[in-house]
Design a protein that fits this description.
The protein has no helices and 16 strands. It is mostly beta strands and 289 residues long. The radius of gyration is 24 Å and the shape is elongated. 8% of the residues are buried.
């Protein structure tokens, strides 16, 4: 059983400008909009994972399900300016400001998980897949939905090198996310690439500390009739500290992990800070252990 707690706070801002010639009247229209976005989220992601007792292809096979629930709030500010130049040279200016606030506390889409992992000496590696099942609540007039309202498949391969004598650990995981189209908005997010890494020192059997990070890069553009801003490919990188602490409750081993990452070099995405607090434990321990 794994209980993951995801916290995020980020913002973004940008400007869009456009000029239009009104041919029938001879007038010119120039418009610009400055947009700011502030978002905050807390998502609890409980995961139930079952590891098969027998090995398959020499590895350990696991199947799981994740059922997210949480709160998300989004604040959008728009300052619009329009200038019309009439054929006689008269200039007319217009300004308008708009604030949009939206928040929600709901369940998200359930996510199915399958993985297989191998171990040999100091090396440990896994391959796995996550499938987002779009059955969670979703509203077309909300900008703070937790569910995606579309199918999504994420495939990931991960490898860890751990020297138990020196306590050095290096972990890298990379994968691709393939997204289906949202049938209510006719919007399809492009294929995404992600890589996560961690450099960790084991100071004891119960305590570790290190540096972690990730990079997200959209490989193909958004598409569909709802993609009014074109491809809109995004990217972001993050870096920060990570620590773990383990203990036992009776005979049940419990592992905790705290992680904080600061984002930078963002494009077409929010930029902010991400925190994770995870607790994992087996629901049962075999006799004799």
């Amino acid at each position: 059983m794994i209980d993951m707690n995801y916290l995020y706070s980020g913002d973004a801002s940008g400007a869009a400008a456009r000029g239009i010639a009104l041919r029938e009247t001879g007038a010119l229209l120039a418009a610009q909009a400055d947009v700011t976005v502030d978002a905050n989220a807390y998502i609890n992601l409980p995961v139930a994972l079952w590891i098969a007792p027998e090995k398959v292809f020499g590895g350990n096979v696991g199947f799981g399900i994740m059922a997210p629930v949480g709160h998300k709030s989004v604040d959008v500010g728009i300052d619009a300016f329009a200038q019309v130049t009439l054929p006689n040279g008269t200039v007319i200016n217009a300004n308008r400001s708009l604030e949009i606030d939206d928040s929600t506390t709901k369940f998200g889409d359930p996510v199915l998980n399958a993985l297989i992992g191998w171990h040999e000496g100091n090396w440990h590696w896994t391959v796995g897949a996550l499938l987002n099942v779009p059955i969670g609540p979703w509203e077309s007039d909300s900008i703070s939905n937790i569910s995606f309202n579309r199918w999504g498949l994420d495939t990931t391969g991960a490898i860890t090198w751990l020297d138990p004598k020196l306590g050095h650990e290096v972990s890298v995981a990379a994968g691709f996310t393939f997204n289906g189209e949202n049938p209510d908005t006719d919007y399809k997010t492009g294929t995404e690439f992600h890589v996560e890494w961690a450099l960790i020192q084991h100071f004891s059997k119960t305590f570790t500390f290190g540096l972690a990070g990730y990079h997200y890069q959209q490989l193909t553009g958004d598409s569909g009739s709802g993609a009014r801003f074109g491809p809109f490919e995004g990217r972001v990188t993050a870096l920060g500290p990570i620590l773990t602490y383990s203990f036992t409750v009776g005979k049940i081993p419990v592992s905790t992990q705290v992680e904080w990452l600061h984002e930078f070099d963002a494009k077409n995405r929010l930029e902010g800070n991400m925190g994770m607090i995870n607790i994992s434990m087996p629901l049962s321990v075999p006799r004799g252990q």
